[in-house]
Specification:
Layout lengths: L3 E5 L3 H12 L4 E5 L2 E5 L10 E6 L13 E3 L3 H8 L5 E10 L3 E7 L5 E6 L2
Parallel strand pairs: 1-4, 5-8
Antiparallel strand pairs: 2-3, 3-4, 6-7, 7-8
Helix pairs in contact: 1-2
Length: about 120
């Protein structure tokens, strides 16, 4: 049911570098009337949604806000990149159940809590 997400940032360059390093993707810079965004790659109609890093005074990074889960082949892959990219591990790879796979969490360079989910 998620159609779009926005991750608040204080430093767009730092946040963009972090997410590009952790997820091995290219993030596109976009600006609309002073609203600075870093768009994640389009999913081209595939399952799941896409979204943006966003910098504006009304957006404040927080580990206490909404929690989004990025889909992964294996959450350990991205977790292994988090600290080298400047983030912190919040929850190591953890089995949810046989039916529901695994999860992990990290705090990004901006202070947001982000989760990962994988079947393996």
């Amino acid at each position: 049911m998620v159609g779009w997400f926005e991750i608040p940032v204080n430093d767009m360059d730092r946040a963009k570098k972090f997410y590009e390093t952790v997820f091995k993707v290219a993030i596109k810079n976009v600006e609309f009337d002073g609203l600075i965004m870093g768009w994640f790659p389009n999913n081209n109609g595939a399952y799941g949604s896409t979204g943006t890093l966003i910098k504006q005074n009304s957006y404040v990074p927080s580990k206490d806000g909404v929690l989004i889960y990025f889909i992964s082949k294996d959450v350990q892959i991205e977790l292994d990149r988090v600290e080298a990219a400047g983030g912190k591990i919040g929850l190591e790879k953890t089995k949810i159940s046989e039916e529901n796979g695994f999860m992990g969490m990290f705090i990004d360079t901006e202070g947001n809590k982000i989760a990962l989910h994988s079947d393996a």
